[in-house]
Amino acid sequence: MRDLRVVRGGREVLHGITCDVPRGSVVGLLGPSGCGKTTLMRALVGVQIVKGGTVTVLGEPAGSPGLRRRVGYATQTPAVYADLTVAENLRYFGAVLGAPRTDVDRVIDEVGLGTSRDQVTATLSGGQLSRANLAVALLGTPEVLVLDEPTVGLDPVLRQELWELFRGLAEQGRTLVVSSHVMDEAGRTDRLLLMREGRILADGTPDGLRSRTGTSDLEQAFLHLIAEKAGSPT
Ligand SMILES: Nc1ncnc2c1ncn2[C@@H]1O[C@H](COP(=O)(O)OP(=O)(O)OP(=O)(O)O)[C@@H](O)[C@H]1O
Q1: Residue pLDDT, tens place only, 189-221
Q2: How far, in Å, CA of 222 to CA of 202, rounded?
């Protein structure tokens, strides 16, 4: 991304964001509610009208038709059919994407929804629903995965399992951009983009951010950076 600017509702919400996401890594996008994480992800996937700047994904402009099968996107609000079962949803989206039929079982297994595969989506718990939504993004083995708060509402065991899944996907050479506003997840990433009020506050490895701010805790590091910014002339 180079100097990305986005206006929503007549107000600039991203003020010139420049950052790089290395291939084969898990990049965390962290920041408080309303700071622009979803907007940045929408721009990455190519579904956001932008006011200025450029977004390039796998060498092509974001949203190019050639990227449709190479980029998976799990929205924050689940986008699955409530009246279909988990497996039916996955068969449907798999057919749309041209994914192999065997993908349905693979992704159900990856998100740990084996016991709910034939359950109607409307009856799933919140955490199960968000995993069903994540499973759709894993169909067709996209090279880039853009996941908007995939672990919201999940218990610590499931969150750990999903982060292990993300790590495994990155080890296969896939690139993940994962948003969260839970700072304890930040330490699981290869690289962190800390956002605040439409700007990148810091961009680096978790260890780099800890040592730069002289704190052992990433939540403290974030607060330190905010205080530093507030004290510096703009
Ligand atoms: N459709 C819209 N129309 C007008 N303003 C919007 C719209 N969607 C988002 N915004 C505003 O854009 C800003 C960034 O929102 P965004 O959803 O990107 O934040 P976020 O960091 O993803 O928040 P959260 O963690 O709560 O999901 C917010 O100030 C929000 O109110």
Answers
A1: 999 999 999 999 999 999 998 898 888 888 888
A2: 9
Q: Which of 6, 39, 41 to mutate to test the pocket of ligand 1 (most atoms within 8 A of CB)?
A: 39
What is the CATH number for 213?
A: 3.40.50.300
Q: How far, in Å, is the centroid of ligand 1 from the Cα of 35?
A: 7
**If you take atom 16 of ligand 1, which residue's CA is the nearest one?**
36
Q: What pLDDT is stored for residue 233 in this prediction? A: 57
Contact 199, 4 (CB under 8 A): no
Q: Write the pLDDT tens digit of every residue in 175-190.
A: 999 998 787 888 889 9
pLDDT digits (tens, 9 = 90+) for 10-65: 999 999 999 999 999 999 999 888 999 999 999 999 999 999 999 999 999 999 99
Query: Taking a C-beta distance cutoff of 8 angstroms, is the pair 40, 178 a contact?
Result: no
ipTM for the assembly? 0.95
If one counts the domains in the chain, the total is 1
116 CA → ligand 1 middle, Å: 32
Cβ atoms of residues 222 and 36 within 8 Å: no
